[in-house]
Amino acid sequence: MMNCRKIASSVFWRTRRTILAPKHYPATNHIQVCLMKNLTPVQTFDHIPVPERPKLTFKNKVPQNLKWKKKFKSLKDIRGPATKANTLQEGMYGLMATTGGYLRHGHFEMIRLTLNRRVDSEKVFARWRVNAPHKPVTKKGQGQRMGGGKGNVDHYVTAVKAGRLVIEVWGKVEFVEVIPALDEIRKKLPFRAKIVSVESLKEEEEHEKYLQESNRNPWTFERIAKENYLGIYKYLGPYDYKWFGKYR
C-alpha cells in the first residue's frame, strides 16, 4: 500500500513539475487534453470537369500557310487598355498584363514549360488567352550601312495591351497552390503583369466605382486637360485626352 502511494505521489509531482517548468526545462511528460474545435469544411472540386487538353498547347514560331508582308512598327498595337480577353471565362485564376509589350516565341515556351513543370497536369488545367506570334519584326545584319530599304523579317511577336489576360488557370486546386508557378512566370515576362482571380477582379471593379463615386477632389486630370489650365495643352498628346493619364 505504501509503495502505491509513493508511486502515485511521484507521478503527481513529476506531472506538476512538467506543467510549471520553464521553457528551458527538458520536459518529457505530456498531458492530453480533449477540446472542442469548430473546423471549416474542406473545399471539394468534384464539380470541375476535366478538359480534353489540360495542358498549354505549343505555339508555332512562324505563322503557317500565310505570306506576311513587312509592316511598320505600329506602337498603337500595345497602347491603351485591352478590349478583348480582359475577363476570366473558364479559369478561376490568371495572369494579366498591366502594361503593354510584345511576346516572342521564347516567352510562349517559357510559360508553357514552367507551368507544366511546377503544377500537376492531372489537377491543374490552363489555356492561352493570347494568339500565336504573328506580327513580323524586321532586322538588318550587323555591320551593314544605312539605307538600302527595310531589312528582312527576323522574328514574329504577339502584341499585348494592358489589362489583357495571358493565360487562364483552373482545376482542383486552391489559389495558394498556383501562386508560386504564376509568380515565377510573371517575373520573366517582358512587361509588368499581376496574378488575378475572379474575386480580385470583382474587388478591383468595385474599388474603381467607389473611388469615382466618393471622389470630392474637383482637380482631376480630365478637368485640367479639358479646360486647359495654365496652357497645359502644349504638353499633352492625343492619347492624354483619350485616357487622361491612365494609360500611355
UniProtKB/TrEMBL annotation:
This is Large ribosomal subunit protein uL16m. InterPro entries: Ribosomal_uL16, Ribosomal_uL16_bact-type, Ribosomal_uL16_dom, Ribosomal_uL16_sf. One of its GO terms (biological process) is mitochondrial translation. Keywords: Ribonucleoprotein, Ribosomal protein. The keyword Ubl conjugation does not apply. Belongs to the universal ribosomal protein uL16 family. One of its GO terms (molecular function) is rRNA binding. It comes from Holothuria leucospilota (Black long sea cucumber). The keyword Ribosomal protein applies. GO terms for cellular component: mitochondrial large ribosomal subunit.
